[in-house]
Fold this sequence. Notes:
The protein is mainly beta and about 600 residues long. It has four domains: about 1-35; about 35-90, no CATH class; about 90-365, Beta Barrel (Porin); about 380-605, monomeric porin ompg (Porin), CATH 2.40.160.40. The chain has helices spanning about 1-25, 30, 65-70, 380-385, 450-455, 590; strands at about 50, 85, 95-100, 100, 110-120, 135-145, 145-155, 170-185, 190-205, 225-235, 240, 245-255, 275-285, 290-300, 305, 315, 320-325, 330-340, 360-365, 405-410, 415-425, 425-435, 460-470, 480-490, 495-510, 510-525, 530-540, 545-550, 555-570, 575-580, 595-605. Strands 5, 6, 7, 8, 9, 10, 11, 12, 13, 14, 17, 18 and 19 form a 13-stranded antiparallel beta sheet that branches. It has a twelve-stranded antiparallel barrel with strand order 20-21-22-23-24-25-26-27-28-29-30-31. It has a two-stranded parallel sheet with strand order 1-2. Helix 3 (about 65-70) links the parallel strand 1 and strand 2 (about 85). The two termini are about 25 Å apart. Residues about 1-35 and about 40-90 have low confidence and may be disordered.
Amino acid sequence: MRLIFYIFFLSQIFNFLGVIAEKINEDPLESNRIKWEKVSEKEYIPLKRIIWKSYKNDEILFEKLNVNEASETNIDSSSKEIIYEPLKKSASFRTQIEPFLPLNNFLDYANFQTSVWWKSSFQGGASGGTGQQNPSLVFDYGISDTALMTIYFSEADDSLYNLINGQAVNYHWQNYAFSFKKELLNHYENSFGISIVPTLEYWRHSSGSKDSKSIYNQQDTLDGKDKFENFVGSISLPISNKLSKNITALIVPGITFLPEKLGSKGIGKNAYGNNFYIGSGLVFDVTDDFNLLFSYTTPLGPGDNHFDKYLNYSRKSIYSFGLGWDINPQIGIEGKITNSYGSSPSTGLLTIPSDNLPLYSASITYRPYGKDTYLAALSERDKSISNGGITVNNALIPKAGTSQAYFNYDEGGTLFGFYGYSLSNIFQIEILNIGSFEGLNFGGNMNSNLYSTYLNDNNFNFRLGGKLLIFSPQKNDLYWVSLRSSVGRNNDTNQGYVFSEFINTFRVNDWLTLNVSPKYFFSGVESFGGIGFSSYINLFDNLMLIPEINTSIKNNSDLNSTLALRYSFSPKKSLDLYYSNAAGVQDIGQLLKVKDYRLGFKFNFLI
Length: 607
């Protein structure tokens, strides 16, 4: 039920952001307001360079005017060259390298952005699965041009990575954090800056269960769960200097405030404690939209930020390196390797509980105020395929602000529902992808770990994901190319997997479209690749034939086929009737074959 609440909460946030952005855009007083600034005599350099700065910092490009042009525009011809330049903020998406390493970058007044972060180990450790995961949601709001409010929420609920005294120990934490960043000094606009960043957090965490002993119990051998709720915090002082046009260096002294002892069964120290630290970072702007990110942080004590499988506490340096790409002014993505497991300013200094491992970190940031990528309108034939296929997806994404949904059922009892929302013309977030596989006949393979883990009798699979459009004929590319990835788990076994695909869609002529989709399934049980092929064949304006084939590389016997007939009530509503021996329409089901063909239907909607 907690996951359903989070999904609902996320969907409401995105709807709220869209409404607010639309409201602001409709307000002419806000959009036309001018911000007047006093210029001191020391800063005044007559007739050399004029910089126009609008309230919203809009990037409006002006051409250079030479002396001759000036005379033609009622400007004194005796003046020197006048250059109109927009005032540009660097790294507009990036307000931090890590939660405990904030950058001296701010959003414009009343602008906001939302980021979803995902941190995970590469292996599942003692609890299996795809990895020890710590997802988080971050919301930034510009209180002013020099003050930023940030709200964090994160949760980790896997067992400890290593066995403790031969036992798999349950370990859970949940963070609600509020951070305020205020600029103290900004010398020569983004050249040298100092800010102060205090943070207050509510940290709920627990360890142990009825079958395992809590790591905070140092007095006896009894199993049981210990729960704690603490207010923790941090203070940091980011100091940045722009070494060149493309390189910004960062030094961050700070302190985190965490408890040193938890519960009544501890003997001495059984938790992290307070930590002074000194962090350093480097942002290298390869281009205006692409950055390389590096950081290294040393905890100075007196507390610790790591404990091992023997519950010995110590201090470990924290590192990260990776890249960030602002795909357009609305959408930014980031990927890094780091040993920082926490996702809030107070816990970001901590390694993965019970070990010190390199983790992968990925995020996507959405700014509703940014300018979207322009795409030409789809033709009527292309609109009819925007709802995708049955077991092979296509690369098209509905335009920004469009909701996509489907409902699927087959005669075996398999039932799935999907809801996605296009935050941008080039990015769709998959907010809801839930359902269960029923009535599957795999023959002798049913006892394998793969099937029993994800397709067992009581399975209920829920997933979250996203789809990014890279190329499109709507912006003069030859064909559509998209990347799609999703994560989730089977609620019964509490085991998850990652599913990714690289989708290619080709419009051959007015009545034929082809899809080629390499896919990869990654889990702690088994990992393998596959590929899907499909076509859309227009028989009439509102009737389409969709043949599909999927095969997994691990086993040729998993080749499955689907034949569907789609009737379009309108370009936004259609009904698919299909006959298939694929296990199902959701991710892993696309790559697996069942013994018997089944009839099914799928309702598709664009709203």
